[in-house]
Specification:
Strand content: 35-45%
Radius of gyration: 16 Å
Largest sheet: 3 strands, antiparallel
Shape: elongated
Helix content: under 10%
Oligomer: single chain
Number of domains: 1
Order of helices and strands: EEEEE
């Protein structure tokens, strides 16, 4: 999930609006990381770029006490994008 808020003056902000990427029909990622940019395409359509991992490494038992990086074999990080329509 990621969220955003809107402001016309930088002082007063809307309530957070959450978008659940886990329900995306073309989901290839296992763990979403960082929203990188939002590009206005026109007609209330935006492209959101984000970093993600193909698998969720939090599912690896004892990930934080692993002695080597071998636990990450088969994992890759990548940049993805989705198109959003705001109505």
């Amino acid at each position: 999930k990621f969220g955003y808020m809107l402001s016309s003056d930088g002082l007063e902000w809307s309530e957070p609006i959450l978008i659940d990427l886990d329900q995306h029909p073309n989901k290839w990622w296992g763990l979403t990381r960082t929203p990188l940019g939002l590009v206005k395409e026109g007609n209330q359509t935006y492209t959101l770029y984000f970093s993600a991992y193909n698998l969720n490494f939090y599912d690896i038992p004892d990930i934080w006490s692993a002695k080597t990086d071998d636990v990450f074999n088969g994992y890759f990080a990548s940049i993805g994008f989705i198109r959003l329509s705001l109505y």
